């Protein structure tokens, strides 16, 4: 995927195109295709630190400069107040095949830069290739350093820095955490108390958040480039608690190793074309080892691992790419966290996991069944059987957050007016924009699906089971039937036209009769369908919000009030094939892979044209949907 100079020269457009690479332990590197950091979450080395893999910005970026004929020319693009450093005017291209590559040109001087992370380590490698026929060329690289949570902005103070020839150690805190830097050529010129002031993050301003910060500049690597040559310069940065200096700038080795790893994943996934390859690599970004647990990151840049998101994305991220070993490990990694029959909504080792979700446990059972369908691994099912039973018993007998089966009809009731337990979980202070307490349509479809899966596993494992409950639930599910598909919630009743009604007819076991299923598809197509996803509310509803924008309050109030979510298309595509014999695919996938983060797919889109990508720029369940339907 190549972005040319013509597209890059449109600053407003290209400054909104981002890239992402990851290290498999929760850390990442990310910026825009211009190298302009527009978010506090951008950084060249966002490290995952400690047993809880807390993500911290350490190396914000590198500022590169070319000097010749007595003048200095920046290759970097930065924004400060009303000033834009215009390195992008010298940029020829950005390319993303396996890794991000940048190309710059000044007269006959060509500079190419490739970036890769060392898998399993908080380590970044960058290779510069400088080609010129001129003499007297000098190339400088200035590291911009900070040390903060990636959720914050912070004016970095002066950090202690020690130099040993080309190796530099920067002490990030008093606990021994160090940023190690090394370059293969030139010398390091140390600065005294020097800072890059007032770096501005445009997207944070748009989100109504603090948008300025200062970075510490310990000095610069200075490299003289001989004439009539192609000079290769390697730079490595690493974060750890070790006191010694880096001995070698092995960036080329890091790049080769990562390309080999990604090529292997693409072969394993049987990636047949460029889109398949991009989606396979995109899927890999979400699969991480956090401490001792393997899990799925819900989305970049700001999400952690969420139970619901993990198991909705499970098939498209893990099974479609033939990563069965990882899939099995992730299933078992959640078992110790089951509490009163609930899978956590959010796992947080620091402050404790949150269990405010009615559907995560049901999606967990669905994921187990998907794993079984791909692998026929009955040994794993037998090991997970008791956990499945524990979940079903808890829902039947009642558990936290008012989650309990109504004995009269077998349906699941959950929550109250102050709780948000389904995936439409926005809450702004005490305001609940999308109240869905009671008996929600997709929750009860998932409940039926779980009961039928339990029956199938019980039969295969020769365990006792009862089919009467699933029969009751299927009969009672007709209470959701209405003129326009299915009611979104009953008891209390909600007649708003929402996409949750498509989920019941896209599950392996559906409680909906075929004729009704066809009607639901028609309703979704008439009121909610777009080429990027399904709207979360029909446009003729008084509460409909066409655009997701503004500050925190405004955005959260519109999050599920029209905003388009790509992941829901998975159930629409499945239902269309199953009930209408229409084989649809994600026709807009190539455009979606360039809408925001180049090579990944965003969390949400505006409900109306031009239907811009919004929210997290790379979302696991969006990529999962595309992987299954492209």
Brief account:
By secondary structure, the protein is of the alpha+beta class. The chain is built from 16 helices and 34 strands. The strands form ten sheets. It has a nine-stranded antiparallel sheet. Strands 2, 3, 4, 5, 6, 13, 17 and 18 form an eight-stranded antiparallel sheet that branches. A three-stranded antiparallel sheet has the order 29-30-31.
Write up this protein.
The chain has 630 residues and is of the alpha+beta class. 28% of the residues lie in helices and 29% in strands. It is built from 16 helices and 34 strands. A nine-stranded antiparallel sheet has the order 1-9-10-11-12-19-16-15-14. A hairpin with a 4-residue loop joins strand 4 and strand 5 (54-68). Helix 5 (274-284) runs antiparallel to helix 16 and helix 6 (307-319) packs parallel to helix 16 (620-628). The radius of gyration is 26 Å and the shape is elongated.
Map the helices and strands.
Elements (H helix, E strand, L loop, with lengths): L1 E3 H4 L2 H4 L3 E5 L5 E5 L10 E7 L4 E15 L2 E4 L2 E4 L2 E4 L4 E6 L3 E7 L2 E9 L5 E10 L4 E13 L11 E4 L2 E5 L6 E6 L3 E14 L1 H5 L5 E14 L3 E12 L10 H18 L5 H11 L2 E4 L2 E4 L2 E2 L6 H13 L4 H11 L25 H16 L2 H20 L6 E2 L6 E2 L25 E2 H20 L7 H9 L4 E2 L2 E2 L2 E2 L23 H14 L1 E2 L2 E3 L16 H7 L5 E2 L3 H12 L8 H4 L11 E2 L7 E2 L3 E2 H9 L2
Antiparallel strand pairs: 1-9, 2-3, 3-4, 4-5, 5-6, 5-13, 7-8, 9-10, 10-11, 11-12, 12-19, 13-18, 14-15, 15-16, 16-19, 17-18, 20-21, 22-34, 23-24, 25-28, 26-27, 29-30, 30-31, 32-33
Helix pairs in contact: 5-16, 6-7, 6-8, 6-16, 7-8, 8-9, 8-10, 9-10, 10-11, 12-14
